[in-house]
Amino acid sequence: MTRKDSNRTISEIKAMIAEDGDFLRPVVRTVIQEFLEAEMAEAIGAQKGERVEGRLSYRSGYYPRSLITRVGKLELRVPQDRNGRFSTEIFERYQRSEKALVAALTQMYIQGVSTRKVKAISEELCGHSFSASAISEINKKLDAELGRFAEYPYVILDARYEKVRENGVIRSRAVLVAIGIEWEGRRQVLGVEMANRESATSWKDFLLGLKRRGLRGVVFAVSDDHPGLKRAIMEVLPEAYWQRCYVHFLRNALDYLPRKVADDCLVELRWLYDRRNVEEARRDLAAWLLRWQEKYPKLCAWVEENIEETLTFYRLPREHHKHLKSTNMLERLNQELKRRTHVIRIFPNEESCLRLIRALAVEIHEDWIEAHRYLNMEMLREQRKQLQLLEAA
């Protein structure tokens, strides 16, 4: 297990460097800059702006220093003091510890910042640890840096369930998952959390957590028709168009048909999702309703009332239709998680379940970053530009 985790981390770092050079650069810069500030405070016996007796010297500005790293060139500000007491070995030690540092920061991006991890990094970079208050301050700044998101115009949401033992009782717990597609066209895992069940509250808390981390610019959200999830999307992402997964919709349609059906009713309904535009789809829907109304009146009434929620994807560029009209992209991720967690069957506690699922999500996230671009987002950019010109006219 340890060896596999190590391989995954190295692979992820390689992917981030190769595919997204800016990904960790501001994070690494924040870490080094904050440790320089903490070292200076220790050297002169006072924090920045702090008035204390017995201080050994006073700050005297900064001098610029560039550092070439595997995540790019960092422009740093090295503090100085009047008496020349301050000196640092960070730059020399960084070159020796760079690989481990970047690996640790990558893990923190997925799993969150912890005092223990920051303390370990400080000992590696500076040769000693800092006070609890200094570590706490570094934690806050690093957490804010790691929590930043890019813009994700497309977001897909779904949940699965795992069995967890709790106080000797086996319970089913919901695993909430979000993936996004950023403007470069690559898929990324945005978040994985556990909840007692799927509800409007749990989904709203999950989405608000993503927004606090910086999720923004969502144009289009895809999910099934779970009432709590649907309500949460409307409340937290009101600017986004909502697409009801057409695959789930067709499964729901089975509830309005006899158990044994030997005709092409649902096959023809499925064809509506392969049209060039929404006008064609609505025209064919009218013909479908006329054809099957007499034989399946309940089904036709239900379809007529609900199908518009599944046609939202026609607002997108045609080349994106097949990827965004369903949650299949996330369903495949969930299937992989199921395959890997099936051997455990019942987790000893919620924490162990979440740790494993997040670790698996990191692997999938890594594969997606290494893969070729999933969508050409220039088509969406151009479409939005044209819409803005029409609105301005």
Q: Any descriptors?
A:
15 helices; 393 residues; disordered N terminus; six-stranded mixed sheet; elongated; alpha/beta
How helical, in percent, are the residues? Answer: 40-55%
SSE class: alpha/beta
Kindly provide the radius of gyration, computed on alpha-carbon positions and rounded to a whole number of angstroms. 26 Å
Gap from first CA to last CA: 60 Å
According to DSSP, the number of beta strands is 8
Output the helix-strand order.
HHEEHHHEEEHEHEHHHHHHEHH
Per the principal axes of the C-alpha atoms, what is the gross shape? elongated
Mean pLDDT metric: 82
How many separate domains?
2
Low-confidence stretches: 1-23
Largest sheet: 6 strands, mixed
Tally of helical segments? 15
Range of strand content: 15-25%
Q: How would you describe the overall organization of this protein?
A:
This protein has 393 residues and is an alpha/beta fold. It folds into 2 domains: 2-146, no CATH class; 154-382, no CATH class. The protein contains 15 helices and 8 strands. The chain has helices at 2-19, 25-44, 90-111, 115-126, 132-146, 200-212, 227-236, 246-253, 265-271, 278-292, 297-306, 321-324, 328-341, 350-370, 378-392; strands at 59-69, 72-81, 154-166, 169-181, 187-195, 220-223, 241-244, 346-347. Strands 3, 4, 5, 6, 7 and 8 form a 6-stranded mixed beta sheet that branches. A two-stranded antiparallel ribbon has the order 1-2. A hairpin with a 5-residue loop joins strand 4 (169-181) and strand 5 (187-195). Helix 1 (2-19) crosses helix 3 (90-111). The longest helix is centred in the first third of the chain and has 22 residues, at 90-111.
